[in-house]
Inverse folding.
């Protein structure tokens, strides 16, 4: 694993591959590469996260925004987004 690429040709181990249907838009499916599953999984697979929790998210890139979405879905009451880049708010 450990390889993310959108290219015409690559040499990879079969465990690192995910076949995408031709109907997938590459500009939307690229979000599934790393950031969204990492942030989403951090919340969904954390056994100590409960509804009515407060959450602080450092960094509002792909991973951070996925954390915000998953935390909201799991019932977080307050979500604090922290980022040094004010354009990401």
């Amino acid at each position: 694993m450990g390889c993310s690429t959108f290219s015409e040709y690559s040499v990879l181990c079969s465990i690192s591959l995910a076949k995408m249907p031709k109907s997938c838009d590459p500009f939307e499916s690229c979000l599934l590469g790393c950031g969204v599953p990492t942030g989403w999984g951090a919340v969904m697979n954390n056994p100590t996260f409960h509804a009515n929790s407060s959450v602080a998210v450092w960094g509002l890139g792909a991973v951070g925004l996925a954390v915000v979405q998953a935390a909201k879905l799991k019932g977080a009451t307050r979500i604090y987004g922290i980022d040094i880049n004010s354009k990401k708010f």
User: Anything to note?
Assistant: The mean pLDDT is 86. The CA atoms of residues 60 and 87 lie 10 Å apart. The beta strands are 54-58, 78-82.
